[in-house]
Amino acid sequence: MNNSFINCFTAEWIKKRRSFADWLVLAGGFFVPLIITLIFLFYPKQLISLHGSNHFWGILFRKSWQMMAFMLLPMGIVLAVSLTAQLEFKNNSWKQLRTAPVSAGIVYFSKLAVLIVMLLLLLLLFNLGIYLSAVIPSFFYSNIPFPKYSIHAGYFLKENANYFIICLPMVSLQFLLSLQFKNFLVPVGAGLALTVGGLIALSWKYIYMIPSSYTALYFLQTKDNATPAHNLQLWSLFYFVLFTLLGYWLYLSKKEKG
Questions:
Q1: What is the pTM of this model?
Q2: pLDDT digits (tens, 9 = 90+) for 32-53
């Protein structure tokens, strides 16, 4: 069982290599840090003033997430998950996959595991980009010091873990949608509609019921240091399990998968 899952996961990982989804993860991880790097290069006083603050890395981290949390990350998840999940439709290889000597459960969960690892990779690249956005300008301007400030590892690990958890329901829901429709535009359109709808409804008192709003909602909570009315992490885990099990049931009950 374990070997079958590992082999299936490896096959799925190799299958999506050099696909547009791979490039999307790479671009998504570095896009915001690249923009911030360019801002610091063209307006170095902004970075110089940041060096005068007491919490250099924390402020830069929140500044980066301000651009990432509201639209770019949810949209990136919608596109990357849809592209990866629909590789079988694109290559017309569902029937070939179904004849492989592995269970439907292993196929489903190995694909989902690949998507989760891709999310982890995106967050890793994003954090690397944040670091580089502070380092690169110091090589171009003599009056910008190299950032030698201590990094509070516990804070960054906690924040990244929280963002990772609140992204999980978006991954599982988009995975569910992508396996149900052959037409790539249907799950993408639904995912983008949910993302935009979640942003529009941010002030709604039941906003916690819309998982696509969680990244923006969490950013606003941490920015204002407000006591959250609802535990987004618990809601995220609930929705992740719900969408995963529902998607698995729909996948098993779908007569024509290809």
A1: 0.92
A2: 999 999 999 999 999 999 998 8
> In 68-184, where does DSSP find H-type helix?
73-85, 87-91, 94-98, 104-135, 153-180
Comparing 4-18, 59-73, 105-119, the range with the smallest average pLDDT is 4-18
What was the pLDDT predicted at 45? Answer: 92
Nearest to 81 by CA among 160, 6, 176, 17: 176
Sign of the CA dihedral 148, 145, 28, 26?
A: negative
Find the Cα–Cα–Cα–Cα dihedral 168, 169, 171, 175, rounded to 10°: 140
User: What is the dihedral angle through the alpha carbons of 51, 54, 60, 61, rounded to the nearest 10 degrees?
Assistant: 150
CA 23/CA 32 separation, integer angstroms:
15
Distance CA(149)–CA(55), nearest Å, equals 9
